[in-house]
Design a protein that fits this description.
seven-stranded mixed sheet, 16 strands, about 25% strand, about 450 residues, about 25% helix, alpha/beta
Length: about 450
């Protein structure tokens, strides 16, 4: 990883949050692809490490990623690195002076932070680390409150909290560029949300799904199992127009029993629109409607830039669709036809994912993405259990562990070709036996 003489070919250091480890790489790749840039790590790249060195990017590329990412904490222009402080010194002294001097002038102010991963340093030790950098030609004035430039010394002590080494495994030094959007996890927490349900998706995962789907400004995003609209909230935050459907009348209309502690019934204005209004994105809300995801209610055309959803698994929310197990049912007519609520029957997992992938193949625009959760029984899981479709390419498959024997996998797919016939349907992309097995274990 040799530093270059051109500011257009600098190296950048991404400091990532040490949670949802499986989701970080697909998120960063997706956000870079929005800029038309590939993910190019350094030679010693380790996916589970909290520090990634990336090459072939500009500062604008990095800032664009950090303006969206909830997996990344901060980004730095990397000036030097090494396994020891001696190697760090050598690396920093070899860094091109013309790249340093714009940020070290006499008329500038600066601050140096010390960050350690998996180890806590005493204040005195932090000061020693800073004093030991006196070989760098800083000419400006130190300002702890409002510096023009912030620099950071980062020490990595590995990922094992039960075996913390005395000395760091690796050390980095660089100029701070931007922070990620971790604040969105707190500001959009479902704990403070106006309208919630039993299965409202947590804010962090909602934004991760939005980024995996490459949702951008003016996109049209659809959620066929919309629930209380957590995914619509996240997508609207990044400027997408959002809509959805759900078979549950009470949820769509904000009626019935409340899922909030110490509240028996939902309030007058508890609905999905109110949630977007809470975050200032109501103008991005198109509408939601009561609809059965297994029934073809949409005209056959590709209109959605992304389909993002969390299908019901039959645990905290039942999996239902309209219909009857009887051989014949008499349709309702007359004065009651308009207000008639049809009977429902079980909607098995294999059918849910078959319908979802077929729907996405017909209604996604070319290059549009489908992002959804797939529940699995861990002892028997294999990659063949992931539903496939000839019009959709699998992009990523990330696991969120729920217990020792259950998990759910975040599946991201991209439309790569149109169905051969306008009304064509690929039956059971997930084998029926697979869906039945998951249903028995989780349902």
């Amino acid at each position: 990883m040799a530093a270059t003489n051109s500011r257009s070919c600098l190296q950048y250091l991404i400091h990532l949050a040490h949670d949802h480890l499986d989701f970080r790489l697909p998120e960063i790749k997706a956000l870079l692809s929005l800029r038309g840039k590939p993910f190019t790590p350094s030679e010693n790249f380790k996916e589970k490490c909290p520090f990634w060195c990336l090459e072939g990017l500009s500062e604008e590329d990095v800032c664009s990623v950090m303006a969206r990412s909830v997996c990344a904490k901060s980004a730095f222009e990397l000036w030097g690195h090494g396994q020891t402080h001696s190697e760090l010194r050598t690396s920093l002294l070899n860094y091109p002076m013309e790249n340093m001097t714009p940020f070290m002038r006499k008329d500038s102010t600066y601050r140096i932070n010390v960050y350690t991963f998996n180890k806590t340093l005493e204040f005195a030790d932090r000061i020693k680390r800073i004093d030991a950098l006196d070989y760098l030609p800083f000419e400006g004035t130190v300002s702890l409150k409002s510096p023009q430039h912030v620099f950071c010394l980062l020490e990595d002590y590995g990922t094992d909290p039960n075996n913390i080494p005395e000395h760091p495994d690796y050390i980095y030094f660089g100029r701070w560029i931007a922070d990620g959007q971790r604040e969105l996890i707190r500001s959009h927490s479902v704990k403070n949300r106006h309208f919630i349900g039993n299965t409202s998706m947590e804010a962090g995962l909602s934004f991760i799904m939005t980024n995996h789907a490459k949702v951008k400004e003016n996109d049209l995003v659809f959620d066929p199992f919309v629930g209380t609209g957590s995914l619509l909230v996240a997508c609207s935050q990044f400027g997408a127009y959002v809509c959805g459907t759900d078979i549950d009348y009470n949820t769509i209309h904000g009626k019935g029993r409340s899922s909030r502690k110490n509240q028996k019934w939902r309030g007058v204005d508890e609905n999905i629109r109110a949630n977007l209004r809470q975050y200032g994105t109501e103008k991005m809300y198109l509408d939601v409607m009561v609809s059965d995801a297994s029934k073809p209610v949409w005209r056959r055309t590709a209109v959605f830039d992304a389909i993002i959803t969390d299908p019901p698994y039959g645990i905290r929310e039942s999996t239902r669709r309209t219909g009857s197990n009887k051989d014949m049912t008499k349709p309702c007519d007359g004065d009651y036809a308009e207000s008639h609520v049809p009977v429902s029957q079980e909607y098995h997992l294999s059918d849910i994912f078959s319908d979802l992938l077929n729907f996405s193949a017909h209604h996604l625009v070319m290059g549009g993405r489908l992002v959804y959760w797939l529940p699995v029984y861990r002892p028997e899981y294999c990659e063949e259990m992931v539903p496939l479709h000839p019009c959709l390419r699998l992009i990523s498959n990330c696991e969120q562990t729920l217990s020792s024997h259950t998990s759910r996998r975040l599946i991201t797919m991209e439309k790569v070709k149109e169905p051969e016939l306008p009304n064509s349907r690929i039956l059971d992309p997930m084998p029926a036996c697979t869906g039945q097995k998951i249903w028995k274990q989780l349902g």
